[in-house]
Structures are given as C-alpha cells and as structure tokens.
Design brief:
The structure holds 2 protein chains of 2 kinds. Chain A has 6 helices and no strands. By secondary structure, chain A is mostly helical. In chain B, a hairpin with a 2-residue loop joins strand 8 and strand 9 (190-199). In chain B, helix 3 (129-136) crosses helix 4, helix 5 (322-339) crosses helix 8 and helix 8 (416-443) crosses helix 9 (467-476). Chain B is extended. The termini of chain B are far apart. Chains A and B meet through helix 1, helix 2, helix 3, helix 4 and helix 5 of A and helix 1, strand 24, helix 13, helix 14 and helix 15 of B.
C-alpha cells in the first residue's frame, strides 16, 4: 500500500512539476503577454505588476524544476500549493466579477476563465496538498532520517 | 510530521477540495446569466443571419464584442460595427439586457461625420430600400454629394437586386478610375460592374459576368495532382444613355437602356426609376426608390471569355484585377526601398528621453517607400507615389505648428493614395496572410504573382488565412515554410544565418481587441531592432520587446531551401537554454542547502526556492535585453492594452483650445476622417495605430505641456479611450479631452464666420 501511495505521489509531483515548467517556459518566452494577462485580472497595482510577474515566472520555473528533479520537494510542494491557491482565488474573483478574460495559465491562445479552468487550478492545488501530506521522504530527507536513526 | 497532524491535513485537504469543486457548480447558474465569449461565435453567426434577413442583404460582421467598456460603444450595449463609407461608422446596437429573452431586437444606426444619423429598428415600418442599398455599398471614396449621383448609384444598385433574393450578395465596392466611377459587387455567381461617367454616347454601362457551363484548363495542378480548370464566364454589357428627371430635378422618371457593342449603343427598353423626396427632416439620402425592372430581352453576350471586360472610352477592353496589381506594386516598392537603404519609419522611445534619439524629422512627403522608387512601376502606382503620404499619417510632424495646416484636404490629398490604403486596410483584415506570403516571396527573390493568385483558396477561416493556409500557399509556390509556436525572441537571432524571413502572427492590436493579424519580418537588423512589413503601413523598425507586446509567439519561417531538422529544433534553443539555466541554478541551490542549511523540509526549503527564483527574476528584470526595466515603453504598451477607465480632464467648451508652442492637439479618428478635415495643427493618432505610429507620435509630443485629444463629437468615445492610453506615456494632468470634437469645432468656426460677416 505504502509503495503504491509513494508511486502515486511521485507521479503527481512529476505531473505538477511538468505543468509548472511548461507554464513557466511559455511565460518566459513572452513575459509581456503574461504581464497583460495578470493586468487583466485587475487585482494588482499597475506599477507593481511587472515585478510580480517576473517573480511568478521565476517561481514557476524553479518550483517546477525542483519537482521534476526531485530536489527540495517539500519546499517546492509548499510553494506550488501557495501558487495554485493564489491562481485559483484570482480565477474565482475574475469569474465572480464576470470578467471575460483568459486565465493566463499557458500562453496567449486561451479561452476565457470557466468552470473548467477553475477546476484545473483547484485540482492542481489539491494534488499539491495531497503530495505534501502523503509524500514519502525524498532523497534529501533520507540522509536526515538516516542521521536520526544513528 | 506526526500521524495525527497528517490525518488532520488530509481531512482539511479533502474538505477544501470538495468545497472548491462544488462552489463553481452552485454559482454557475447565478453567474452565467451574462453573455460570455464562449458562446460568442454562435451568437455572432446568429446575429449575422438575423441582421442579414432583417435588412435583406448580406452583412459581414467585422467586429463583435461583449466588452461593454470598449469605446465608442456605451456601457450595457453589445455592439457590432460595419464601416460602410470609410469615414462613417454604422453601428448595430444590441440591448445587452434584452439579448437573451428577445434576440430579435435590433437597432441599426448610421452615424455620419456631421453627427447625422438614421435609425432603423426591426419593427420599424420605415421603407428601407435605400438603407438596403447603403448597406450594400462600400466605397473608398467620400460619398457622392450630388443627389443626382446618389440616385444613380443607389438606384442602379437597387435595380440589380430588386427582383431577386439578395442572399449571397457581396458588399459592393466603389472606386474612381480617372473620370470613371465603378461600382462592383457579386450576386450569387454573377459579378456586376457598374461604370459611371460618359463613355462614348452612353452615360453608364453595366457589365454582368456570369458563369457558363464551359471549363478551360489552366495548366496548373492542385495538391492531388488534378488539373485545375477555370470557369468560363459570359459577359453582358448593357448601357444607359440617358436619365430623365422631372422639371425640378427631384424625381427621376426613367432612363434609356440599351445594348452596347463596341461603340454602338442601341436603345432597347426603358427602365422606370421613380424616386421621391422623403420628409425634409430625414437626413442624408432624402430619396426612396421604386424600381420597375424590364425583362432582359436584348443582351450582348461575349462567350468563351474568362476575364473581366470593362467598357472604357467607348471600347470594351480586357482588364486585370487592378487592386491586385496595386497591392503587388506597393509590396515591390516597399521592399525595393528596403534594399536601397531607405529608412523605415522609426520609433523613438519617449521613455528613454530625447537624448537617445529625440523626435525625428519627417520629410515633407513622409517616409513612404514609394517616394524612393519609380522607374519600375506602372502609371497607376506612379500616380499612387505622387499623391502619397500625408506625413501625419505615419510619421507625424515633430512640432505640429498650429494654424499652418488647412482644415480640409484637397481632392488629390484624399485621392488615390488614401483610397488605396483604405482599400488595403479594409481588405487586409482577411487577406493579410496572403499579402504577407507575397511580401515574404518578394524578400526572398522568388515573387508570387498576386494577380494570378486565387486568393480565396488560401483563406479558409472567416477571419482570414490560417497558418496552414499560408504554409500551403508557400508550398504550392515553391517556397518552404514551417510553423513555430510559442517561439521566443531568440528566433530572430537564429534566423540570421538561414536566409529566411518570418511571417509573424499577432494577437490583439493595441486598441482593437480580438484582431489577429499576419505581418512579415526579416529578422534582426544591425541595430538589434526588427523591421516589420505590415501592409498598407510603411515598414516600421521597432524594438524586439515592443514586438513581444503583440506577437503571440507563432511564426512561419519562410525559406527558398528545405528547412533542416537542426533549424527546426534550434527554433526552440532559447527555451532549452532557459531549462538548462534553471536546472543549473537549482543544482547550485541544492548544493548550498546541503552545506549551509541542513533543515530538510518545509518552509526553509520554500524560502530557499523563493530566493533562487527572486534572484533569477531580478537578473532577468534588469539585465535581459527584453527585461521590463530596459523596456518601459513596452511595459506601458502592455498596460495600455488593458487600461479602461482612467478619468481625465474634459472640456465641453468649444473655444477651450489654447494653441501655443507648448500645446498639441491629437486627433483620435481614422486617417481618412483626419484627411477629410481636422482642427488646424492636429496630429493624427488613429484608433488602430501601429506600435511604430504610436511611438513616432509620442516622440513628437513628449515636449508638449498640454495635449488636447478629440474625435468626432461629444458622443464618440475614442478621444477618452485614447487619452486614457496616452496618460501612461504622458503626465495625466496635462491631457484634456476636447469634448466638442471636430464637429463642434467646425460649427463654432461657422458661427464665428457668420458673426464676422454680420
């Protein structure tokens, strides 16, 4: 059972990592379109938005990279959960305000925010939390576990 | 983590997940009562059909928007617009609230430059014959001013349609060729071409082209290797020798119609056209038509011909598609100008200050490439060059001096060049993919002949050519094109060694949402900028970051040679480098963590990741050529695409314009409207300005202490919308929206003149 659980969480982690990497790379290739997407949410002050967008792109890439490589995984999962929480809340507010905007998740050619995009974001948030709660010790934790036993 | 804590976290996760899952389902019916873009496409089709059937003519919807804040439409109104005359706008209003329960409520409204309008609703009993005629006519010229000409133009149009179902009728085009005026449209499989002006002993002629059952091999083969046959058309030429008016010339009572063969005109029958003056308070075309069409007993048939024939100077001559030739010539001129070193319109970044460029002087005739060429062009295009380029269209004068420019343009100013540009601008929305392929072919020295190109074969979407269409067109013309999506700016650097050009796909333009577009670039210039060729505008040199604000990462790389696998893969080498970079920094981070921070889990790791990401972001932000810190103009361009509701100073006072050296006036209307008349000294920054045009205008305005922005009148929203966008580049407190607009200004000018005469 534990083996199956571990395999499941590792697969989930890899999936989350790939999603974040893909999103980060697409945004990194044209950060101006991502900036536009973020501005369209009308949640951030216009002057702060560029800096936050740059930070978000960096976080996407690094958190995604960590999960794909399997390093710093608990920190990465925590940050991923935080990111997905922010994305989900932002989408909810846009949906609530009836704003016909794209979610800005994967590039420019997107349909507007819908139940599907919110579910996707919520699912990713849930997956991050599940991995965080159920996840087996990663390679970086094994050393500490071994140290404790000694 | 202890077992109890783990169980608690799991429970909380499941509850949170379930709540978030259920919430949208509960909220959906409450929230989804408004029209969204999801059903926009279906709605657009429905509206198109509905309007077509209501007005009894085919209406092409050029714009469909649910964005209620978009200028010039008022909040709460779903709007679609169709430009009939280029300087007028016809708007179809849809009541947003009534949209779902009563989709049949249509209010069509025509608004003209002088604040005149005609309104028509579906249930209106107003006879709409003339309205139908107007909807059908799309002209690149100003509307005819004489009622007699209007009557002829519209009367003939209505005649052509009165007895038949008008479904399948194309929007007609109207243009002038010398003294001759030509109105053309298609109806089902027929092409109608009306020629006005005295030709021989006829006043006008009608060429009716219809397909016959014969087919002719073209010598070309399609993708499947099958022979392509062209349709053989039959042309009938009918002449009109006279139009009879009643005594006070307010009523046409009939005209003489006959057969034209060579120079001979033989009266055949009389068509009775009656038109009467409508009540004097009806604005614009005070006529309605009652057409009695005779049977076509006598016809001239020219069988076995596949080209269009026209009746010019009393002779029937074979002609080729004039518009295609003009486009081809313009493309060649622009590209030749490039190779001859003519500087394209260049934007100076106002955010970087005048010290790094400053306003660039524009030549008296502007920077139009056509001025640098001439020997290899046809008389038509020579005429085009000679009359080309009001400097304020693309490169506004850096110091617009008040009172030095006339308020109205001469006929030559508003002549061929504007007609050509208007034609191209209006048609390029669908043909931009084909034009871009032609431009690319010219740049690579393997030209595609536009006049022999079946353009519609390569336009499979209602909005224009898809990427597959363009690639297929290139392939069938012996060129190689491969599609790249989600490319980054590094593509332009890598293209340098490929002997290739790229056709770029643009998302929404600065102010027109939802418009997708194709344009061409040759890759990076020596100065690290990109030259973008986007007909009918002059080539523009813009910074890569500025391009990124509208380019959606889709490109078709075009080459004369087959594209290698290495080239294809290297299109994405920029992304690969990013991945390697991120992984390297991560590895370094992990190494440091294990050495310096032996806490294995949770928040410290997250903090470390955030620090790494922040460092990466800071380096990119400040050091990358495309970083936000190095491209404030591009950042502002992006913000300008989003901005909607900035409230700025407004003045309703018609005499508020205080003209001096520190003041500039910005005309937010379309170029043709501007050319037909503007406030003296005004600089034109049209609603569909390109990045280059916007940058050039801003450079010219950066030293001004007060900007007045105006459009047509106090009801149009373009001035406010443009002013809001300008406030990102210019201090907001220095911008004033001049509410009376051009109409108010002109009226006040008239009043002042009257007073001075008295």
């Amino acid at each position: 059972m534990n083996g199956a659980k571990s395999a499941f969480t590792k697969t989930l982690e890899l999936g989350i990592g790939c999603v974040l990497c893909l999103s980060g790379l697409i945004h990194f290739s044209n950060p101006y379109f991502f900036l536009e997407s973020v501005l369209r949410y009308d949640l951030l002050p216009q002057t702060l938005a560029p800096a936050i967008v740059a930070g978000l792109v960096g976080l996407n890439l690094f958190v995604g990279g960590s999960l794909v490589l399997g390093v710093l995984r608990s920190g990465a999962l925590l940050t991923a959960a935080l990111l997905f929480f922010v994305f989900t809340v932002a989408q909810f507010t846009a949906y609530w305000r009836d704003m016909p905007i794209g979610c800005g998740c994967f590039g420019v050619d997107e349909s507007p925010i819908s139940v599907w995009t919110m579910l996707r974001s919520t699912g990713l948030l849930a997956a991050s939390l599940v991995c965080l709660a159920w996840g087996s010790p990663g390679p970086d934790n094994a050393e500490v576990e071994a140290g404790r036993r000694a | 983590m202890s077992d109890a804590l783990q169980r608690k976290t799991t429970k909380l996760t499941i509850i949170a997940f379930a709540t978030l899952l259920i919430l949208p389902v509960i909220l959906n019916p409450l929230l989804y009562s408004q029209v969204s873009d999801e059903d926009g496409v279906k709605l657009q089709d429905t509206l198109s059909l509905l309007i077509s059937s209501t007005l009894n003519t085919k209406v092409t919807i050029e714009k469909f928007s649910t964005d209620t804040s978009e200028a010039p439409f008022e909040k709460g109104v779903l709007s679609i617009g169709k430009s009939i005359y280029d300087q007028h706008v016809v708007r179809y209003y849809y009541d947003h609230e009534k949209l779902r329960p009563n989709i049949g409520t249509i209010i069509a409204e025509e608004i003209y430059g002088d604040n005149q309008k005609i309104s028509l609703s579906k249930n209106d009993a107003h006879p709409s014959q003339y309205f139908r005629g107007l909807v059908g006519v799309k002209t690149t010229e100003p509307p005819l001013t004489s009622p007699y000409e209007n009557a002829l133009l519209l009367g003939l149009y209505v005649m052509g349609n009165a007895s038949e179902d008008t479904k399948g009728t194309s929007i007609a085009t109207y243009r002038k060729a010398g003294d001759e005026q030509i109105l053309q449209y298609e109806h089902k499989n027929y092409k109608f071409s009306y020629h006005f002006g005295k030709n021989g002993d006829t006043l006008a002629s009608v060429n009716i082209q219809r397909p016959s059952l014969d087919r002719k091999p073209t010598g070309r083969k399609d993708r499947n290797g099958k022979e392509i046959y062209s349709e053989v058309t039959t042309t009938e030429v009918i002449g009109i020798r006279s139009i009879r008016l009643n005594d006070d010339k307010s009523r046409i009572t009939g005209c003489t119609v006959g057969i034209v063969e060579g120079k001979q005109f033989t009266p055949g029958s009389v068509w009775k056209i009656q038109y009467e003056a409508l009540p004097p308070d009806t604005v614009f075309t005070p006529f309605k038509f009652n057409v009695v069409e005779p049977p076509f007993d006598n016809k001239v048939v020219i069988p076995g011909e596949e080209s269009e024939y026209q009746f010019i100077d009393g002779r029937i001559v074979k002609v080729i598609d004039e518009s295609a030739v003009r486009v081809q010539n313009q493309i060649r001129e622009q590209i030749l100008a490039q190779f001859r070193g003519s500087e394209p319109t260049r934007r100076t970044d106002p955010a970087r200050g005048a010290g790094q460029g400053g306003p660039e002087p524009s030549s008296p005739t502007g920077s139009n490439a056509s001025n640098t060429t001439g020997s290899a062009i046809t008389p038509d295009s020579a005429n085009l060059s000679a009359t080309s380029t009001p400097s304020t269209l693309s490169t506004p004068s850096p110091t617009p001096t008040p009172s030095t420019q006339s308020t109205t343009s001469t006929p030559s100013d508003a002549g061929t060049e504007i007609a050509y540009r208007s034609y191209l601008r209006s048609s390029s929305s669908r043909h931009c993919g084909v034009y871009s392929a032609v431009v690319a072919s010219e740049l690579l020295g393997k030209p595609i002949e536009l006049e022999s190109l079946p353009m519609e074969d390569y336009i499979s979407s209602v909005h224009g050519s898809t990427a597959e269409d363009v690639v297929r067109l290139l392939r069938e013309q012996g060129l190689h094109g491969f599609l790249v999506t989600n490319a980054d700016a590094g593509l332009f650097q890598r293209m340098a060694g490929w002997d290739a050009v790229a056709i770029l796909h643009f998302g929404a333009s600065l102010q027109v949402e939802g418009v997708a577009h194709w344009a061409v670039t040759q890759g990076l210039n020596a100065d690290g900028r990109l030259t973008v060729i986007d007909l009918p505008r002059d080539p523009e040199s813009i910074a890569v970051a500025d391009l990124l604000t509208t380019w959606d990462g889709t490109a078709i790389v075009v080459s004369k040679h087959p594209v290698t696998l290495t080239q294809r893969l290297s299109s994405y080498s920029g992304l690969a480098v990013s991945v390697v970079l991120v992984f390297s920094v991560l590895a370094a981070g992990v190494f440091l963590q294990r050495r310096l921070l032996p806490q294995p889990r949770g928040i410290p790791q997250a903090a470390l990741l955030c620090l790494l990401a922040l460092g990466f972001a800071l380096v990119w932000y400040f050091a990358s050529p495309q970083g936000f810190a190095n491209n404030p103009f591009a950042v502002n361009l992006t913000r300008a695409k989003v901005i909607t509701g900035t409230r700025l100073q407004e003045t309703p006072n018609v005499d508020a314009l205080e003209l001096d050296d520190h003041t500039a006036i910005v005309d937010a209307r379309l170029p043709l409207e501007y050319k037909l008349g503007h406030i003296p000294g005004a600089v034109n920054l049209p609603i569909d300005a390109s990045i280059g045009e916007l940058g050039a205008t801003l450079s010219a305005l950066q030293n001004k202490k007060r900007l007045y922005v105006y459009c047509n009148n106090d009801r149009c929203g373009w001035a406010s919308a443009l002013a809001a966008k300008l406030s990102l580049f210019h201090p907001a407190e220095q911008i004033v929206v001049y509410k009376p607009g051009y109409t108010g200004y002109r009226e006040s000018l008239g009043h002042r003149l009257e007073r001075s005469v008295q």
